[in-house]
Amino acid sequence: MSLAAPREEGVQQPLPGQEPLVLVADPIAQEGLSLLGQRARLEFVAGDRAALERRLGTAEALLVRSETRVTAALLESAPRLRVIGRAGAGVDTIDVEAATARGIVVVNAPGGNAVAAAEHTLALMFALARRVAAADASLKRGQWSRSAHVGTELTGKTLGLVGLGRVGGEVARRALGLDMHVLVYDPYVPDEHARHLGLEPVELDALLDAAEYVSLHVPLTEATRGILSAGRIARMRPGAFVINCARGGLVDEAALLTALDEGRLGGAGVDVFSTEPVAPDDPLPRHPKVVATPHLGASTVEAQANVAAQVANEVLAVLEGRPTQFAVNAPSLRPEDVDVLEPYMGLMMMLGKLATQLADDHLRSAEISYRGEIAERNVGVLTAAAIQGLLEPISDTPVNLVNARLFAQQRGLEIVETRSNTPSQYTSLVRVTVNTRAGPKSVAGVISDGRANVVQIDEYQLHLPPTPGYMLVTQHVDRPGIIGLVGTLLGQADINISSMQVGRKMPRGEALMLLSVDEPVPPAVVEKIRQAASVEVIKVIKL
Predict the structure, then answer these.
(1) Edge-first strand listing for the sheet containing 41-44
(2) Which of 164, 332, 460, 498 has the smallest CB count inside 10 Å?
(3) pLDDT at 510
(4) Which tops the pLDDT comparison, 288 or 220?
(5) What are the catalytic residues?
(6) Around Cβ 295, how many Cβ atoms within 10 Å?
(7) What gap in Å lies between CA 222 and CA 220, rounded to an integer?
């Protein structure tokens, strides 16, 4: 499998021996440019959109940071482009879907700024503990007020980390070096892995009850948006501090302001905001108990050098046909494998996403199994797709076919691949099983007439195409009226059902219902269904 995208016929190719052209559209640290310059021709078009559009037609690689927006329209003028390199983690300024459709690989550098973000987190913690910002402002006003700025030590304090990804792990290591007691909440990291690092795994409410400092290190998803809600802020330890160097939108900013005004919290260190740049009259960064910075978590000389070098190596790997570690979109399949394996790619990813989101606890291990004719194939890429699906809903960095196994290893998630030629009712059957403290959760699927279908969840037999979007899953006792009641409640909330399947063990016994819906189901509607229909389990899943 090569990451080099197939080129369009009729497009002028580089002359034999000619180095590929890399357009540099944003300021990039010299460490990355030096690497690229050894094996490629560089042309700089930073700040000149017209020059970018004009020269893109001859370029094979495009290097950007956050300033340049790479749109579908821009890519239409890039017939030779093979790779887009993002010097940083976020790719929200790149139309990844359009790039994928054109066979263009998008790579980034998600790990190069982890240390910078971790150190910035600690910097805000120190600033809050020792009242650095207030003391500095006071002294600049000509005041010598030592008694007004008495601080506290971090040593011996309890730090609660919400998320144990790359940045969270770096913060944890440094906090342990300060002799802090570190609690961690991450439902997708095994407790044994956290304990091995010297951390105490706890549930989120327990963390909020005990921690004197609460630091957020999770990606912004539908599940984590507003994770530090008004209710959770209200239960925090009196005088506690909040630090957010992860993503804006994780914290209910209005509730945070209220807690600061009322004196329930000691302060907050905020580097990211729900809306950026913040409005001049935004009260949060101006609050006297807040130490605020304008999204500087990754803004260090070293981090910029690291991400520049990392993305340069990624770009060169694609140009030279070598595997990469940080491709954001899926690499191409070999032509001889496309017909058989390509339909399974999306199915395996969907099965992984389903299994993770259906699991009732954090993942300890996962088994990817192949039965029938598919077991005779080279299924490594399918296993990678399943792992990608398992990790995508819970990862704070982009997961792809190349880095999925590495990320699983870093999370302490054991992956087992099994194959069996034993015949079944299907020519080929694929299954993803995750194991947690609450027990296993299994999801199986098939390809029938070129279309993917989920055919089994645990013991329940189904036949449901796993289409992208949202799914409502309920587990309940089968009785008359349940389906109609759930449909009515969703209709009252103006939520449209696109498809539905019910699997049951026996009439009026345990049943599982899956409804594909066009919109996310709000928590209030979920709770109304739970109470009105007396369902045992109800979950909203995003595919």
Answers:
(1) 41-44, 21-24, 61-64, 83-86, 105-107
(2) 498
(3) 86
(4) 288
(5) 247, 276, 295
(6) 17
(7) 7
